[in-house]
Amino acid sequence: MMRRIVENSVGHPLKTQKIILQDELHCSACSLEKLIVRPSPVKLQTESPKFLERIQGDICGPIHPSSDPFRYFMILIDASTRWSHVCLLTTRNTAFAKLLAPIIKLRAQFPDHPIKSIRLDNAAEFTSATFNDYSHVHTQNGLAESLIKRLQLIARPLLLRAKLPISVWGHAILHAAIIIRIRPSAYHKQSLQELVLGQVPNISHLKVFGCAVYVPISPPQRTKTGPQRRIGIYVVLILRLL
Protein backbone atom coordinates (compact mmCIF):
# COMPACT_ATOMS: atom_id res chain seq x y z
CA MET A 1 0.00 0.00 0.00
CA MET A 2 2.79 2.43 0.89
CA ARG A 3 4.47 1.75 -2.44
CA ARG A 4 1.27 2.66 -4.34
CA ILE A 5 0.92 5.90 -2.40
CA VAL A 6 4.51 6.91 -3.20
CA GLU A 7 4.21 6.01 -6.89
CA ASN A 8 0.89 7.80 -7.43
CA SER A 9 1.91 10.97 -5.62
CA VAL A 10 5.55 11.59 -6.57
CA GLY A 11 6.13 9.15 -9.40
CA HIS A 12 8.92 6.60 -9.48
CA PRO A 13 11.64 7.68 -7.01
CA LEU A 14 15.31 7.56 -7.80
CA LYS A 15 17.46 4.80 -6.39
CA THR A 16 19.32 7.35 -4.26
CA GLN A 17 16.22 8.06 -2.21
CA LYS A 18 15.74 6.09 1.00
CA ILE A 19 12.54 4.36 -0.02
CA ILE A 20 12.53 0.58 -0.16
CA LEU A 21 10.80 -0.55 -3.32
CA GLN A 22 11.17 -3.42 -5.69
CA ASP A 23 14.04 -3.11 -8.14
CA GLU A 24 11.82 -3.86 -11.11
CA LEU A 25 8.58 -1.89 -11.26
CA HIS A 26 6.03 -2.13 -14.04
CA CYS A 27 3.94 0.99 -14.57
CA SER A 28 1.23 0.72 -17.21
CA ALA A 29 0.99 4.52 -17.54
CA CYS A 30 4.71 4.82 -18.30
CA SER A 31 4.49 1.93 -20.76
CA LEU A 32 1.74 3.72 -22.66
CA GLU A 33 3.39 7.15 -22.57
CA LYS A 34 7.00 6.37 -23.39
CA LEU A 35 8.36 5.12 -26.70
CA ILE A 36 12.10 4.93 -27.24
CA VAL A 37 13.22 4.04 -30.75
CA ARG A 38 16.60 2.38 -30.73
CA PRO A 39 19.16 3.41 -33.37
CA SER A 40 19.08 1.35 -36.51
CA PRO A 41 21.72 -1.42 -36.26
CA VAL A 42 22.34 -1.27 -40.00
CA LYS A 43 24.63 1.50 -41.21
CA LEU A 44 23.74 2.22 -44.80
CA GLN A 45 26.68 4.51 -45.42
CA THR A 46 29.91 4.20 -43.49
CA GLU A 47 31.86 6.92 -45.25
CA SER A 48 31.24 10.59 -44.55
CA PRO A 49 29.27 12.17 -47.39
CA LYS A 50 30.51 15.31 -49.08
CA PHE A 51 28.64 18.60 -49.21
CA LEU A 52 25.13 18.12 -50.68
CA GLU A 53 25.72 14.45 -51.49
CA ARG A 54 22.92 13.42 -49.14
CA ILE A 55 20.04 15.61 -47.96
CA GLN A 56 17.56 14.43 -45.37
CA GLY A 57 14.08 15.83 -44.85
CA ASP A 58 11.09 15.50 -42.57
CA ILE A 59 7.80 17.20 -41.70
CA CYS A 60 6.52 18.07 -38.23
CA GLY A 61 2.79 18.45 -37.65
CA PRO A 62 -0.07 19.03 -37.59
CA ILE A 63 0.55 21.54 -34.80
CA HIS A 64 -2.35 22.97 -32.81
CA PRO A 65 -3.12 25.81 -32.70
CA SER A 66 -2.13 26.81 -36.21
CA SER A 67 0.25 29.70 -36.81
CA ASP A 68 -1.95 31.84 -39.06
CA PRO A 69 -2.55 29.46 -42.00
CA PHE A 70 0.39 27.18 -41.19
CA ARG A 71 -0.03 23.84 -39.40
CA TYR A 72 3.25 22.10 -40.34
CA PHE A 73 6.91 22.88 -40.86
CA MET A 74 9.35 21.01 -43.09
CA ILE A 75 13.10 20.76 -42.66
CA LEU A 76 15.93 19.79 -44.99
CA ILE A 77 19.43 19.14 -43.66
CA ASP A 78 22.71 18.34 -45.38
CA ALA A 79 24.33 15.25 -43.88
CA SER A 80 27.84 16.68 -44.27
CA THR A 81 27.77 20.32 -43.15
CA ARG A 82 24.46 20.24 -41.22
CA TRP A 83 23.22 23.11 -43.38
CA SER A 84 19.47 23.29 -42.89
CA HIS A 85 16.43 24.82 -44.53
CA VAL A 86 13.15 25.31 -42.69
CA CYS A 87 9.82 26.35 -44.18
CA LEU A 88 6.22 26.48 -42.98
CA LEU A 89 3.44 24.49 -44.66
CA THR A 90 -0.30 25.04 -44.72
CA THR A 91 -1.02 21.44 -45.82
CA ARG A 92 0.99 18.34 -46.58
CA ASN A 93 0.12 18.67 -50.26
CA THR A 94 2.53 21.59 -50.64
CA ALA A 95 5.52 19.56 -49.41
CA PHE A 96 6.84 18.64 -52.86
CA ALA A 97 6.84 22.24 -54.14
CA LYS A 98 8.50 23.46 -50.94
CA LEU A 99 11.11 20.71 -51.33
CA LEU A 100 11.98 21.60 -54.91
CA ALA A 101 12.53 25.33 -54.32
CA PRO A 102 15.64 25.11 -52.05
CA ILE A 103 17.05 22.18 -54.04
CA ILE A 104 16.90 24.20 -57.27
CA LYS A 105 18.63 27.12 -55.54
CA LEU A 106 21.34 24.83 -54.16
CA ARG A 107 22.03 23.28 -57.56
CA ALA A 108 22.28 26.75 -59.12
CA GLN A 109 24.56 28.18 -56.44
CA PHE A 110 26.78 25.11 -55.99
CA PRO A 111 27.04 23.44 -59.43
CA ASP A 112 30.22 21.62 -58.38
CA HIS A 113 28.37 19.81 -55.58
CA PRO A 114 25.60 17.68 -57.12
CA ILE A 115 22.83 16.28 -54.92
CA LYS A 116 23.11 12.50 -55.14
CA SER A 117 20.37 11.35 -52.75
CA ILE A 118 17.44 12.72 -50.77
CA ARG A 119 16.40 10.74 -47.71
CA LEU A 120 12.86 11.35 -46.52
CA ASP A 121 10.68 9.97 -43.77
CA ASN A 122 8.18 7.31 -44.81
CA ALA A 123 5.27 9.41 -43.54
CA ALA A 124 2.05 9.89 -45.47
CA GLU A 125 3.15 13.15 -47.06
CA PHE A 126 6.16 11.40 -48.63
CA THR A 127 4.47 8.22 -49.87
CA SER A 128 2.76 9.66 -52.93
CA ALA A 129 3.87 8.67 -56.40
CA THR A 130 5.97 11.82 -56.62
CA PHE A 131 8.10 10.81 -53.63
CA ASN A 132 8.26 7.05 -54.16
CA ASP A 133 11.81 7.16 -55.53
CA TYR A 134 13.14 8.85 -52.39
CA SER A 135 11.28 7.55 -49.33
CA HIS A 136 13.04 5.65 -46.54
CA VAL A 137 11.92 4.48 -43.14
CA HIS A 138 12.28 6.93 -40.27
CA THR A 139 14.93 4.85 -38.49
CA GLN A 140 17.33 5.90 -41.24
CA ASN A 141 16.34 9.56 -40.94
CA GLY A 142 17.57 10.34 -37.45
CA LEU A 143 19.47 13.47 -38.50
CA ALA A 144 16.29 15.19 -39.67
CA GLU A 145 14.34 14.16 -36.58
CA SER A 146 17.17 15.43 -34.40
CA LEU A 147 16.98 18.84 -36.07
CA ILE A 148 13.22 18.99 -35.49
CA LYS A 149 13.74 18.31 -31.79
CA ARG A 150 16.46 20.95 -31.65
CA LEU A 151 14.22 23.54 -33.30
CA GLN A 152 11.45 22.79 -30.82
CA LEU A 153 13.84 22.98 -27.87
CA ILE A 154 14.88 26.48 -28.98
CA ALA A 155 11.42 27.70 -30.05
CA ARG A 156 9.60 26.79 -26.84
CA PRO A 157 11.77 28.95 -24.53
CA LEU A 158 11.55 31.80 -27.05
CA LEU A 159 7.76 31.81 -26.78
CA LEU A 160 7.78 31.43 -23.00
CA ARG A 161 10.30 34.20 -22.42
CA ALA A 162 8.51 36.61 -24.75
CA LYS A 163 5.12 35.66 -23.22
CA LEU A 164 3.65 35.30 -26.68
CA PRO A 165 0.73 33.01 -27.54
CA ILE A 166 1.44 29.51 -28.78
CA SER A 167 -0.03 30.47 -32.16
CA VAL A 168 3.21 32.37 -32.87
CA TRP A 169 5.13 29.07 -33.00
CA GLY A 170 5.77 29.50 -36.75
CA HIS A 171 7.81 32.66 -36.20
CA ALA A 172 9.63 31.01 -33.28
CA ILE A 173 10.59 28.01 -35.43
CA LEU A 174 11.94 30.24 -38.21
CA HIS A 175 13.85 32.34 -35.68
CA ALA A 176 15.31 29.18 -34.14
CA ALA A 177 16.44 28.04 -37.60
CA ILE A 178 18.26 31.33 -38.13
CA ILE A 179 19.96 31.03 -34.73
CA ILE A 180 21.20 27.56 -35.63
CA ARG A 181 22.65 28.85 -38.90
CA ILE A 182 24.63 31.76 -37.47
CA ARG A 183 26.19 30.15 -34.41
CA PRO A 184 28.79 27.37 -34.07
CA SER A 185 27.64 23.91 -33.08
CA ALA A 186 29.11 20.87 -31.41
CA TYR A 187 29.60 19.30 -34.83
CA HIS A 188 31.40 22.28 -36.40
CA LYS A 189 33.45 25.02 -34.76
CA GLN A 190 32.28 27.42 -37.47
CA SER A 191 28.77 28.65 -38.13
CA LEU A 192 26.87 27.12 -41.03
CA GLN A 193 26.98 30.40 -42.94
CA GLU A 194 30.76 30.58 -42.63
CA LEU A 195 31.15 26.90 -43.44
CA VAL A 196 28.97 26.96 -46.56
CA LEU A 197 29.47 30.49 -47.92
CA GLY A 198 32.81 31.40 -46.33
CA GLN A 199 31.29 34.50 -44.72
CA VAL A 200 31.31 35.31 -41.02
CA PRO A 201 27.68 36.09 -40.09
CA ASN A 202 26.89 39.68 -39.15
CA ILE A 203 24.81 39.61 -35.98
CA SER A 204 24.80 43.34 -35.26
CA HIS A 205 21.13 43.53 -36.29
CA LEU A 206 20.11 40.48 -34.26
CA LYS A 207 17.47 41.28 -31.64
CA VAL A 208 15.82 39.39 -28.80
CA PHE A 209 12.80 37.42 -29.98
CA GLY A 210 9.60 39.12 -28.81
CA CYS A 211 11.19 42.45 -27.88
CA ALA A 212 9.57 45.79 -28.68
CA VAL A 213 10.54 47.45 -31.97
CA TYR A 214 9.54 50.72 -33.60
CA VAL A 215 8.32 50.28 -37.16
CA PRO A 216 8.29 53.26 -39.56
CA ILE A 217 4.81 54.26 -40.67
CA SER A 218 4.35 54.24 -44.44
CA PRO A 219 4.51 57.74 -46.00
CA PRO A 220 0.84 57.84 -47.12
CA GLN A 221 -0.24 57.29 -43.51
CA ARG A 222 2.08 59.84 -41.92
CA THR A 223 1.00 63.29 -40.84
CA LYS A 224 2.96 66.47 -40.16
CA THR A 225 2.27 66.43 -36.44
CA GLY A 226 1.58 62.73 -35.87
CA PRO A 227 3.96 59.94 -34.91
CA GLN A 228 6.41 58.69 -37.52
CA ARG A 229 6.69 55.18 -36.09
CA ARG A 230 4.49 52.67 -34.30
CA ILE A 231 5.45 50.06 -31.76
CA GLY A 232 5.58 46.40 -32.77
CA ILE A 233 6.86 43.00 -31.66
CA TYR A 234 10.05 41.52 -33.12
CA VAL A 235 9.32 37.93 -34.16
CA VAL A 236 11.63 37.05 -37.05
CA LEU A 237 15.11 37.83 -38.37
CA ILE A 238 15.30 38.15 -42.15
CA LEU A 239 18.56 36.50 -43.17
CA ARG A 240 19.07 34.65 -46.44
CA LEU A 241 21.82 32.12 -46.90
CA LEU A 242 20.90 31.25 -50.46
Automatic annotation (TrEMBL):
<dbReference type="GO" id="GO:0003676">
    <property type="term" value="F:nucleic acid binding"/>
</dbReference>
<dbReference type="InterPro" id="IPR001584">
    <property type="entry name" value="Integrase_cat-core"/>
</dbReference>
<dbReference type="InterPro" id="IPR012337">
    <property type="entry name" value="RNaseH-like_sf"/>
</dbReference>
<protein>
    <recommendedName>
        <fullName>Integrase catalytic domain-containing protein</fullName>
    </recommendedName>
</protein>
<feature type="domain" description="Integrase catalytic">
    <location>
        <begin position="45"/>
        <end position="134"/>
    </location>
</feature>
<dbReference type="InterPro" id="IPR039537">
    <property type="entry name" value="Retrotran_Ty1/copia-like"/>
</dbReference>
<dbReference type="GO" id="GO:0015074">
    <property type="term" value="P:DNA integration"/>
</dbReference>
<dbReference type="InterPro" id="IPR036397">
    <property type="entry name" value="RNaseH_sf"/>
</dbReference>
